[in-house]
Amino acid sequence: MVNAGAGPKYLSVREHLRRRVAALPELTLLPPEPVLCAEYGVSRITLRRAVDGLVADGHLVREQGRGTYVTRPAIRHEYRESFVHRIAGFNSVMTEQGAQVGTAVLTQRVVPVPALVATELKLEPASDVVELVRLRSVDGTPNHVAHSFLPADAYPGAVDADFSQGSLYDYLRREYSADLAHARIVVDVGTAAPDEADALGVVAGSPLLVVRTTVRDSGGRPQVHSFSRLRPDVSQVEFEVSVGGR
Description:
alpha+beta
């Protein structure tokens, strides 16, 4: 039986099933609906809603006369930041791949710099930064929540700019001729807080990929620090590395 925890029960069932099918060989048939309903302690309607989500995401396939079986979702779009040839933001890369990118601005304000951000941006503790939090989606599916921080003195107009579409990096280049030359990217794992889980359509406590990026100019001065918290079931992080400047 599933412990629903925070959020609708079908989301808990979907998350349990997603982890379960990820460990199964492709083409494995799922048990019949009555068996799964009894196992998870849910109604047939709740189970079907959970399975519908996994079918839509490409984890399962329903076939008349055969049942529901495991497949592997094709990753059509990759979360990619190239730091060899250019610093390209999520919006630019996804758009180039033919994806429909959606952006909802959740927070846009000037705040005192958080301690960890001050370290990354090499700012004094009394400094202010522009904080920008956006929910990003790909082809209608929530993908990640992006938190970006910019020195308020260097980029004062960012607090009023329209970031409901387009790239933050493109904005900085266009409006401030920003020299975005190098990026340091660190990937680790976190878990979804309740409000974050609701925005991303996952169960609270679900694992998330956390991608932390600090972008510097050609002189090594930090310009932007961001961290994105991604759904691992619909995201892939790719790094491109070049040796000898090629």
